[in-house]
Sequence to fold (661 residues):
Amino acid sequence: MEVPCGKMYMDSSTKTSTATSIGLLKSIPGLGAFRDHGATVFFLALIALSALITPNFLSFGTLENTLVQVFPVMLVALGMTLVISSGGIDISVGAIMAISAAVLARLYTSGVGLAPSIGCGILAAGLCGLFNGILISRFRIQPIIVTLVVMIAGRGLAMRVQGQLSTSLEYTPLGNFGLYKVADKVPVQIVIMLAAVAIILFVVKKTVFAKHVEAIGDNCRAARLVGINTLATTIGVYTVCGIMCAIAGCMEAARIGAVNVAQLGLFIELDAIAAVAIGGTPFSGGRTRILGTVVGAVVVGLVTVIVNMNDIPSHYSMVFKALIVVVAMWTQRKK
Amino acid sequence: MKTTTTAKNTGAASLIQSRGPLVAFLVLCAVATIFFPTFLAPVNLANILRQVSLIGLISIGMTFVILSGGIDLSVGSTAAVAAVLAARLSGEFPTAAAVIPILAGLCIGAVNALLITRVKIPPFIATLAMMLGARGLAFVLSGGVPVGADRYGRFSQIVKSDILGIPCVGIIFILALGVAIIVAKHTSFGRSVYAIGGNEEAARMMGLNANRSKLLIYMICGGCAAAAGMLHALRIGSVRPGAAEGWELTAIAAVVIGGTSLTGGIGKMGHTLYGVLILGAIPNIINKQGTLTTLDNDVITGILLLAVILLQSRMTNQVPSAGGAA
Fold:
């Protein structure tokens, strides 16, 4: 019977060179530690640098601001980490955010209650993830092309769902929720973010599902042959990613106070992938470094905040992010 | 049991596989003409060609990259950098405005190749980082504001004109495609592209200098993107630093619709033409239809892409896959 494992990710040479190089790598003292904690090093270096050059940097205001801004990237990056450790990729995350937000907006402004609207938004995103997962595992199409299709078509679909390009949510309870602070001190985004990180961390460390995901990422055929249900696991991974996008999308809708399907979550896949790259999860799959991604996401968010606070034109943040990703990949490579 | 059905289907399947994209394009044209008789008018066809030529140029370079098993997400940003450079230089230094942007594209391509071969970053990540970096560079070079190009210079006039009713950019595209087809089929470089895409380890073991080939491949891709950006600047006359956003996805879609496999080693340079034309025909038809919008255009492109992929995967599944690591 056909083994449902297509070529998951297009890098042909890194897999074969891995086996021979790990032995070499272990022999270099200290390098292993840097590899494992590269993201943290970056993070601390970035903090130190900005504390020096930016006035008022080390304050709670900055911290709060950064974390709130980082919220969507963090959530999407968490889902992305699982997908990447399964050996795949998901570039449709922005479009899925837009779809779920559009469903939310359409239902909510038509009078449906808040909770059911959000529920349907999450359901819609879950369906997108399901779609991705089925095409990738059952039809053995490469993840990048499947998610490319959803990325291309998704926003158009979202517009059809919403009936218009942009829906305003201002002056609604949802719009206010986006600015809500728990106990009047902690923005609700930070609370949700911490909860999401905790849940995903639990899933990765304690569940068999996560072990299966890593097995598939490491060697899909072998995983299948030992009896892992690659079909179900792959579908599960992309669905989880979709759900994370839904939460991010709905909260973004709440924060911005409107749903513009062309703008919501635009380019977030770049930031999310950058966060995962900085965090050290290998793109060939097989390992999941959730805490690395968390730090990576904060680094990505920090770049934007630092650029803003120093009155540097915002497009420089793109250059900095690109440089950080390259350096991160370089330090974490297997020689 | 499987072998007999494969043998029976070989006739039709191989016909579709070898000429599939052309068939698809002809079918599309036929359907379009039924609904909109003006579709086949020479003016309309020339328009389509005019619209797709720049993306087509990029797709040529992208085809080489994808055939070699890689991908280049930075082409849009490279085109933007080239466009800004061309716009900046076009007033006082018309010749430089034609040359410097191409050089910039070649350099960006070279950096991509170095990141992939020396720093060993997967092509997806490397070119993603370059996409960000080059976009930032485009903003920096333009100062964040739209840059005006010299609309009345010699080059600009040539680029915007038609020769015998065929748009000049179309001629450039077709010529470039012709050269690319010859290179892909009849040079050792072209064969090395297919070899690397088919099985890079085996290619290296055969003595192929894969790193050098990749350098050329990504430089060609960067050069094509830069040429497209430069022509864009000369044609439009004013370049936003955010120009050419999303072009990389359209180029990838064109290459894939043209039958080139993303895993590398399979595909024909010439078929990219059909992918490009199909992607140009769709917005044209949507325009004629009148009620759909740009976002709907994307939905249709997405569905079409999906259909092609499913078809491709069905056909390659009939062929026993070569072994090798997952």
